[in-house]
Design a protein that fits this description.
It contains four helices and 19 strands. The protein is mostly beta strands.
Length: 233
């Protein structure tokens, strides 16, 4: 992954209420985004909606992504067009430029948009993943050619670059993304009392080399805090 980009873009509103403005400079450039992620676009930008097939749409839906995806482009002869996207929760957005063949695993919901050269798919996380609170499915992104992706996090986003053999212990609810091939496993932290009442029950242990992204807040905890105010037992 590098800091380059195939598309001109600007992230504004960081770190609390970030959005990304992407400029489509010429016909043939296309961005795909989760349904509901677009906040505005120039009038001559064209949008089409597709699930890419019923099975693919269904898998994305189970992983926490949207069944349909929207695709944005500009027609022949049109001037450059802008389209802006935002994450669903208060927080920040980061850009990832992927080289051909590069692959990452994302937590559910964090994918916002990307170039069509980056495939978005679903993989099973296993029973440990399900009981960790992250759900049974995760999202995989794979660059079939050089491409760009933008992901969003609830709160502050932090990048962790692990040296060979270095270990990072991450609370299961704040994991955002990690590189393919990184050694990782789920485990409980503390004793039985901590596991039941400590609020830190299941963690993910990553071992370098590799990169891990975390977010500083967990949507599940916010939902739990709001339940009494919504009349939900």
């Amino acid at each position: 992954m590098s800091s380059e980009s195939l598309l001109k873009f600007e992230i504004i509103g960081s770190p609390a209420f970030a959005s990304v403005k992407i400029t489509l400079s010429k016909p043939g450039q296309e961005v795909k985004a989760e349904a509901g992620a677009m906040i505005y676009m120039d009038g001559h930008v064209h949008m089409r909606t597709s699930a890419g097939g019923f099975k693919k749409g269904l898998k994305r839906m189970f992983s926490g992504e949207s069944f349909f995806q929207n695709f944005f482009s500009i027609p022949d002869g049109a001037p450059p067009g802008r389209v802006a996207f935002a994450f669903g929760a208060p927080g920040d957005i980061i850009h990832m430029h992927l080289n051909q063949g590069e692959k990452w695993t994302l937590s559910k919901d964090v994918y916002i948009c990307g170039t069509t050269s980056v495939e978005v798919s679903t993989k099973r996380g296993g029973l440990k993943q399900m009981f960790s609170g992250e759900g049974y499915f995760l999202t995989d992104i794979t660059a079939t050619a050089e491409g760009d992706v933008w992901i969003g996090g609830y709160g502050h986003i932090e990048k962790h670059e692990l040296a060979p053999g270095e270990e990072l212990v991450v609370d299961n609810g704040v994991m955002m993304a990690f590189q393919e091939g990184m050694e990782h496993k789920f485990s409980k932290v503390g004793g039985r009392k901590s596991f039941i009442a400590g609020g830190e029950g299941v963690v993910i242990r990553y071992k370098g080399p590799g990169i891990v992204y975390t977010q500083s807040r967990e949507l599940g905890l916010l939902a739990g805090m709001l339940r009494p105010f919504m009349g939900i037992p």
